[in-house]
Structure formats: structure tokens, C-alpha cells
């Protein structure tokens, strides 16, 4: 294969050389292998190799040291033609196959097939080496693996995944999930607007194509599901059109789908003008469809029979107009327009219905329908919106110039769509789950929780972590690669915390400041090392807390006193910011744990004693404040929500005193309390109070209680700093009320309103059998003989059906093998003597695959 410019020189050739051992070696050359110096071995012992723009992928099968499996399949990745490295997938399930689903936008989507034909979708970092779980149970087909025992094997020679990238928009993907056997009854669709960071069900339309109300709510498990590659191949008689999205019409999507709990309902045509955020039913029943003039005109022809009319729409599918394209009925096989979808000319491939098959090509020019060229007044500014109050995709607001839906005019082939881009503040949609975390099973919560399959320490410092450097400790989230957002409360809440690499036992040392840096000099080794501090300008005074391993210093240019703990517990932080003029010295008292400083710009030094008494929790605290200012401001920290405090301030000489009472607002109850039932336990989920309460610290945690209505007892289950809680040992037939309430930060008591959830879905199960035990003996003599006779009858019927099924299956297989060409993906069915039809005028139809748009019979 040839290289890809600009990542490879124009003369680059890559070769997969098959070795006698059954594996391959990947070689590259820039002079067609004329010289050894221009030849390079990329990777040896390769099973398969693939080139995707700036990425190179290869798989190998090797025995890993210490592994219980006989062999392991590994994925190797190269980014920007760097040396290939093994990718990291943190999972305990054996991996049988990899499939590169998408490698655009500096990230890689990989379908990982595990044993029992379970496939999960993983997403990588920019390098393509570190993968995190994005979506579980994705629909995937492989000729030698998942789905190979279905009829799809007759029509697909290559693996594929039901994952569609919405062209024209960054980070928007639509995927099909499978839950159980491979059937449309077990398939449903989900969409992401942030490159797999979060996934959600598709919004169902509010009305059908005739104006009737559609009774479908997401809260009841009803949503819109779209057909993709699997549905197109599986429905042999009436192949459904896949999702259509193009760069020529950003935000416009056409698809065949159904509304309900799965994909098995009646198929219709649906159109979205908002990039997948909202949908409407455009046409009833399956259709061929495409568009032209940059999405200015949509065209469709009904599937399932001969046709003489087509439908077109000039307002993005809101209304449709019929047009008669032929006086004679035509079997339509495909509806196309020129690549780029800029032209107003459409091409229909088919054959007349009332004669022997002969290929027919019809062209429809729609320029007269659109009228005059568009003027500036016919356009509008449009920006994608994901219906969550955030008009940004991957950290930037992209505004397109798009023709207004009700403006009847044509854009023209030379239409250049202007685009304006501006960065946005960060939101949850700009983040994905970090390495070792995954989305909770309830997709609506959009919470990243620790992946139980991750065996390492989620918060351990990296290795190596040299003393004097910093590392980022994850909070479970990482910004999507390529996302350009900045600022906002979410960024500070979800971004990992920068911490210094831990300092262990060390020799005696001296700390000294040189204005824009602070150094640590080791007296034993003579090593002089600058500490990892940011933003220093004029550091003039410093001291060290030996108990907590924390450094304090004053910066007279910034007028701040800052702190950095070298044990990695906290990052660099400002402890005093206000009313500083010219700090000349500071000292830390390890006994009282108070920090003192001398400010040369202040007039006199006064010492105040602040006494705080918690009326509710019966606790008291004292603070000391030394200042030279006439007006004193002091920030009381650690006050609990829902508290009542008596506060007094007095001079140390007891000459003056002032007191007042302060009440704090209680924390609200956690929102979106939901429950998820597993085999032997249940999970409670809720939204973090930090979303609404800016001052809420997740480290205070939540307390979980349960009330059993049968025993009329309330029990304490435990506390957690996460937004979920696992509960087991629930009794059948009992009704439970769960309570989740925020804890106090210091005292461990409760400081918030409780959120309550009634759970009564545990049925009596086996305990119901005890009520009927007394009657079982009387009925056994009658029921058992009847059941035995019924069982004999059912078995006989099943044997007869099985023999008939095998006979029909053998006949069909023999017929299909004699007519189907798997290499071309086509079939020829004739109605001549072979099928026992004496009519010489019966039509002969030559079908064609989706990969070969035109076949001449």
C-alpha cells in the first residue's frame, strides 16, 4: 500500500510480507525497496496491519508472561509515524479481536471483542495508546467471530461496527447497542455529542408524518432507534437505508428508524436539522433518499414495490411534494446524486416493471423547483446545540451559514459555507472518563465511576515521579483530546489536581528564596534544587511546617502568602490575599499552628481573639488574628450548612468585645436519586451537590440510611464520598425507603436535607410458595398426568417441525449457493426453467451490492 501524505514521503510504500511461520512483517521503503538504507522494519510477527492517516495499527498474538490464557491478542499503534507501541486496555476479560471503528479528530475508537461475543467500545488519548471504556455492548460483526452464525455472513466479507460519525460536526457519533441475542428486538440507538464522553438515547419525535401525536417518553424507556449497517444487510427483501450525513449539509441527518423500546418497530424516515439533538418523522415507511444543493433539496422514493412518483422537500423535510418521474412503473434500486451533494440533478437506477429486466437510468433536474439563486437574506446563522443549554461542541462554538428552511432558492455548486469559531467555557460534555474509570450504567447521570476491572491504584503517583516535579491526580475525568474549552467552574471541579511528587525521608536541608524561585539545598549531598512553584515574582520571606511538610512564603509583588505541601496532599494555594502591603518576615508556630507575619506597610499591630461556638453541635473554636489595619476582615472557614453559631470578637487586652449570631443555610437534598438492580445487589445513584452548590466539597461525603416498612426499622448503611452506593442483603417481599443526605465537613454529622426514594420491586419470590403448600398434595394426582400427556404432545410436534426445518434449510442453502457470488456481493435470480417457470417474459433482476453502485446486466 502507498503511504499517506503529508505523514509519509510521496514515494513511500508499505508492504506486509508473509513469513513461513504464518505471521507477517511490516516493511516500508521510500525508493520502492531499491536500497537497504531506505528500507525500514516497522513491526514483526504481525497478524494484521492497517493504515489510517496519521495512525498505523497492527495486531499480534503472543504469550504474555504470567497470563493464565494460552495467548493474548495485542494492539500496536503508531502516531505520526513514531515507533509502534503496545496499546493499554485495562480489562480482566480476555480479548479476542480488535476493530478500528474510527480514527478521526486525533482520537481512536476501537471495538474490543471479548469472549462470548461481547463487544465494548473504547476511546484513546491523542497518541492512541491509553484506552478508556466509552460504551458497553456495541453491535459488532466479524466474519470469523461475533455474528458469524447469522445470515449476515452471506452478505458481509469484512468486519464492521454499527457506529456512525455524523459528518460536518465534530464529536457527534451514533451507535447501536445490543442486549442479548442478535435480533432487532434487542437493539437500541444512542448518541454522543462529545466524542464518547457521555452517551444518551435519541429524542423521539413529538408527532408522526401525518401530524398525529407520538406517545413516547425517554423516562419510560421509549426513544428513537436508527438503522445502520447491520439492519441494511439483515433485511434481505427490503434493505433499509443507512444514516445519511455529509459535510455539504452540516447538522442535517436523514435516517431510517423506528420509535419504541427497540429497533424492531415499523420503519419510517426521520430527519434532524439540529445535528441529532431533535428529530421529526418525515415519511411513513422505508424509502430511498438523498439530497442535493448542499442540503437545499431532499428527495425520496418509496421502497417495496414499483413506483412512478418521487417526493421532494425544500424545507429540510417539514413538507413534501409528489412528482411523477415516469409514466410506466419502475423498480427502483438506488437513488443517487453526484459526490459532494452540490448538484441539483438526481439519478435513479432501476428497471421497468412490466418487461424483462433491462437497466434503466433516469435523471431528474430540480433546479426549476428551487428557483432563483439565494440572496444574503435567505441565509441564517446556525450553531449546533445538544439540547442541554450548551451550544458548544468539543469546547468551541461553531457557527455555520445555512439556508433558511423556508427560503426557496438554490445555493449553487460554488456555494462556500462560511464558518466562525469561538472557544467556550468548559462543561461536563467536554470531559470523558479517565483511564481506570467508566460511565455509570445509568447514562442519564453522566457520572464517571471507578471501573471494577481496573486492578491498579487510581490515584498513585506516576512512575517515575522525580522529586521537585508535579503530576496530575485524576478526579475520574479527562478533557477530550482536541477539546479547546477553557475556564468555568466545571474545569476546576473535573480537572485533575496538580500535586508535587512526594518527598520521602531526606537529609537536613536549607530553604532559601531568590525572588522568582525558592530553592532546597541538601546539606548532605550539596544538591541545589528549585521547587516546582508557579507564578513567583518577588518571594522575600518563607517558613516551613515540619509536621505537615508544607512550605509558606510571601510574595510582595502579588501581595499574597501562599502554601505548598510537599507530601502531595494539596497543590499550590493562596492562604492570605487581602490587606497585605509589604510583608518583610513570616514565621509558623508549630505549637499553636498559627502563621505570623510582619507587614511594614501597616501602621500598628493589633491582636484579636475570635471565639466561635456551634450552638447545634455543642463545639467551640478559637482563632487569633494579628493585623495593623483599622478595618479587619476575617474569613471564617469550616462553618457547616444548616448550623447556628455564636461569634464573639475581642481585643487580646479585653478592652473591647463584640458578638453576634450567625445561621447558615442547610444543604439541599441530592437530586436525581435513582436505583439500579443487579443480580444480588442494588446501586443507588444521585447527582453531586457540587453541580448546584459551588462551595460544596465532595470530600464531606454522603450518608445513606434505609427504612424497612415491614420491620419498621431505620438502619444506617454507611457513608461515601462518591455519588453512588452499593447495597446488598435486601429481603424479598420488603418495601424499603432509602435516604441520602450530605454529611458535615468536620464533625461527621448531617448538614443537608435528605433525598428519599421508595423501592418496592423485590417480589416475594419463593416465599409465596409457602402459602400454597397445603393444597399441593391434593392437586398433584390430577395435574401430573395431564402435564405428562401435554409434554409428550409438545415433544412430538417439535420433532416434526425440526425435520421439516432441516429439509427446507437444505433446499434453501443449495439454491443460495448456486446463485450467490460472495466475492462480488451480488446475486442473480432468474425465472426460467431452473425455477420451473414456463413464462419466457418473466423478468430477470440483477442486484448489486452497496459497495458497487452500478452493475450493467
- Please give the CATH class of one domain: Mainly Beta
Helix content: under 10%
Class derived from helix and strand content: mainly beta
* Fold-level CATH name of one domain: Neuraminidase
CATH superfamily of one domain: TolB, C-terminal domain
Instruction: Please tally the helical runs, counting DSSP H or I stretches of 4 or more residues.
Output: 4
Q: What is the CA-atom radius of gyration, in angstroms?
A: 35 Å
Explain this structure.
The protein has 857 residues and is mostly beta strands. Among the domains are: 429-500, Wheat Germ Agglutinin (Isolectin 2), domain 1 (2-Layer Sandwich), CATH 3.30.60; 509-630 and 639-661, Neuraminidase (6 Propeller); 674-767, Immunoglobulin-like; 801-857, no CATH class. The chain is 7% helix and 38% strand. Strands 8-12-11-10-9 form a 5-stranded mixed beta sheet, with no helix packed on it. It is globular, with a radius of gyration of 35 Å. The two termini are 32 Å apart. Mean pLDDT is 80; it is low at 763-781 and 820-857. LDL-receptor class B repeats lie at residues 549-592. Keywords: Glycoprotein, Membrane, Receptor, Repeat, Transmembrane, Transmembrane helix. It comes from Lates japonicus (Japanese lates). Pfam families: Sortilin-Vps10 (PF15902), Sortilin_C (PF15901).
Summarize this structure as a short list of keywords or feature phrases.
4-stranded antiparallel β-sheet; single chain; mainly beta; 38% strand; 5-stranded mixed β-sheet; 4 helices; 857 residues; Wheat Germ Agglutinin (Isolectin 2), domain 1; globular; disordered C terminus
Amino acid at each position: 500500500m502507498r503511504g499517506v501524505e503529508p505523514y509519509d514521503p510521496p514515494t513511500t510504500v508499505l508492504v506486509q510480507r508473509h513469513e513461513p511461520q504464518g505471521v507477517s512483517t511490516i516493511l516500508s521503503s521510500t525508493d520502492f525497496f531499491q536500497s537497504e538504507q531506505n528500507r525500514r522494519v516497522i513491526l514483526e510477527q504481525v497478524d494484521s496491519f492497517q493504515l489510517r492517516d496519521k495512525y498505523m495499527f497492527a495486531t499480534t498474538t503472543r504469550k504474555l508472561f504470567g497470563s493464565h490464557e494460552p495467548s493474548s491478542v495485542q494492539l500496536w499503534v503508531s502516531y505520526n509515524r513514531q515507533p509502534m507501541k503496545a496499546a493499554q486496555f485495562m480489562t480482566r476479560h480476555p480479548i479476542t479481536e480488535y476493530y478500528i471503528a474510527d480514527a478521526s479528530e486525533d482520537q481512536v475508537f476501537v471495538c474490543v471483542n471479548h469472549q462470548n461475543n461481547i463487544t465494548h467500545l473504547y476511546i484513546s488519548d491523542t497518541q492512541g495508546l491509553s484506552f478508556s471504556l466509552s460504551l458497553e455492548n456495541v453491535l459488532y460483526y466479524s466474519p470469523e467471530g461475533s455474528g458469524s452464525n447469522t445470515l449476515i455472513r452471506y452478505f458481509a466479507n469484512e468486519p464492521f461496527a454499527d457506529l456512525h460519525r455524523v459528518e460536518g460536526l465534530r464529536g457527534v457519533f451514533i451507535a447501536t447497542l445490543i442486549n442479548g441475542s442478535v435480533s432487532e428486538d434487542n437493539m437500541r440507538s444512542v448518541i454522543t455529542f462529545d466524542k464518547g464522553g457521555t452517551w444518551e438515547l435519541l429524542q423521539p419525535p413529538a408527532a408522526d408524518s401525518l401530524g398525529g401525536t407520538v406517545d413516547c417518553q425517554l423516562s419510560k424507556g421509549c426513544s428513537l432507534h436508527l438503522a445502520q449497517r447491520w439492519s441494511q444487510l439483515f433485511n434481505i427483501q427490503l434493505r433499509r437505508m443507512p444514516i445519511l450525513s455529509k459535510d455539504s449539509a452540516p447538522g442535517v441527518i436523514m435516517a431510517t428508524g423506528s420509535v419504541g423500546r427497540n429497533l424492531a418497530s415499523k420503519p419510517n424516515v426521520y430527519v434532524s436539522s439540529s445535528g441529532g439533538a431533535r428529530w421529526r418523522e418525515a415519511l411513513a415507511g422505508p424509502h430511498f433518499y438523498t439530497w442535493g444543493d448542499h442540503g437545499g433539496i431532499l428527495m425520496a422514493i418509496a421502497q417495496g414495490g414499483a413506483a412512478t412518483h418521487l417526493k421532494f422537500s425544500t424545507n429540510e423535510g417539514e413538507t413534501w411534494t409528489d412528482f411523477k418521474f415516469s409514466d410506466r412503473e419502475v423498480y427502483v434500486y438506488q437513488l443517487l446524486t453526484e459526490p459532494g451533494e452540490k448538484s441539483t440533478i438526481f439519478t435513479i437506477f432501476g428497471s421497468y416493471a412490466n418487461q424483462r429486466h433491462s437497466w434503466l437510468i433516469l435523471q431528474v433536474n430540480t433546479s426549476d423547483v428551487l428557483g432563483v439563486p439565494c440572496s444574503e437574506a435567505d441565509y441564517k446563522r446556525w450553531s449546533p446545540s445538544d439540547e442541554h443549554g450548551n451550544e458548544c461542541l468539543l469546547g468551541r462554538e461553531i457557527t455555520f451559514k445555512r439556508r433558511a428552511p423556508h427560503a426557496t432558492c438554490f445555493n449553487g455548486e460554488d456555494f462556500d459555507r462560511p464558518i466562525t469559531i469561538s472557544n467556550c467555557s468548559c462543561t461536563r460534555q467536554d470531559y470523558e472518563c479517565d483511564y481506570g474509570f467508566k460511565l455509570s450504567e445509568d447514562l442519564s447521570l453522566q457520572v464517571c465511576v471507578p471501573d471494577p476491572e481496573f486492578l491498579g491504584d487510581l490515584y498513585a503517583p506516576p512512575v517515575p515521579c522525580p522529586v521537585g516535579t508535579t503530576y496530575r491526580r485524576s478526579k475520574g475525568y479527562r478533557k477530550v483530546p482536541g477539546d479547546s474549552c477553557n475556564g468555568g467552574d466545571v474545569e476546576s471541579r473535573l480537572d485533575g489536581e496538580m500535586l508535587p511528587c512526594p518527598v520521602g525521608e531526606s537529609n537536613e536541608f536549607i530553604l532559601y528564596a531568590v525572588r522568582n524561585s525558592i530553592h532546597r539545598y541538601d546539606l548532605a549531598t550539596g544538591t541545589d534544587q528549585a521547587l516546582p512553584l508557579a507564578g513567583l515574582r518577588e518571594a522575600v520571606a518563607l517558613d516551613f511546617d515540619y509536621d505537615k511538610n508544607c512550605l509558606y512564603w510571601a510574595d510582595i509583588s502579588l501581595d499574597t502568602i501562599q502554601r505548598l505541601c510537599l507530601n502531595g496532599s494539596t497543590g499550590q494555594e493562596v492562604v492570605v490575599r487581602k490587606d497585605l502591603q509589604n510583608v518583610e518576615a513570616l514565621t509558623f508556630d508549630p505549637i499553636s499552628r498559627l502563621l505570623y507575619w510582619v507587614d511594614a506597610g501597616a501602621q500598628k499591630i493589633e491582636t484579636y481573639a475570635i471565639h466561635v461556638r456551634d450552638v447545634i453541635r455543642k463545639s467551640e473554636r478559637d482563632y487569633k488574628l494579628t493585623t495593623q489595619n483599622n478595618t479587619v476582615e476575617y474569613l471564617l472557614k469550616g462553618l457547616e450548612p444548616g448550623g447556628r453559631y455564636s461569634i464573639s470578637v475581642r481585643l487580646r487586652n479585653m478592652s473591647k468585645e463584640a458578638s453576634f449570631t450567625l445561621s447558615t443555610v442547610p444543604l439541599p437534598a441530592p437530586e436525581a436519586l435513582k436505583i439500579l438492580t443487579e443480580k444480588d445487589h442494588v446501586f443507588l445513584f444521585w447527582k453531586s451537590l457540587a453541580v448546584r452548590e459551588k462551595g460544596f466539597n465532595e470530600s464531606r461525603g454522603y450518608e445513606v440510611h434505609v427504612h424497612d416498612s415491614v420491620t419498621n426499622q431505620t438502619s444506617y448503611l454507611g457513608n461515601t464520598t462518591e455519588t453512588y452506593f452499593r447495597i446488598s442483603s435486601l429481603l424479598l417481599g420488603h418495601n424499603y425507603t432509602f435516604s441520602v443526605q450530605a454529611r458535615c465537613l468536620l464533625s461527621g454529622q448531617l448538614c443537608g436535607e435528605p433525598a428519599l426514594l421508595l423501592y418496592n420491586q423485590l417480589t416475594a419470590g419463593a416465599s409465596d410458595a409457602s402459602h400454597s403448600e397445603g393444597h399441593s398434595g391434593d392437586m398433584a394426582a390430577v395435574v401430573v398426568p395431564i402435564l405428562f400427556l401435554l409434554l409428550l404432545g409438545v415433544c412430538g410436534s417439535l420433532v416434526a417441525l425440526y425435520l421439516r426445518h432441516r429439509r427446507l434449510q437444505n433446499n434453501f442453502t443449495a439454491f443460495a449457493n448456486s446463485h450467490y457470488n460472495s466475492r462480488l456481493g451480488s446475486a442473480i435470480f432468474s425465472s426460467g426453467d431452473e425455477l420451473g417457470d414456463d413464462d419466457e417474459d418473466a423478468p430477470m433482476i440483477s442486484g448489486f451490492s452497496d459497495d458497487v453502485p452500478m452493475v450493467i446486466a
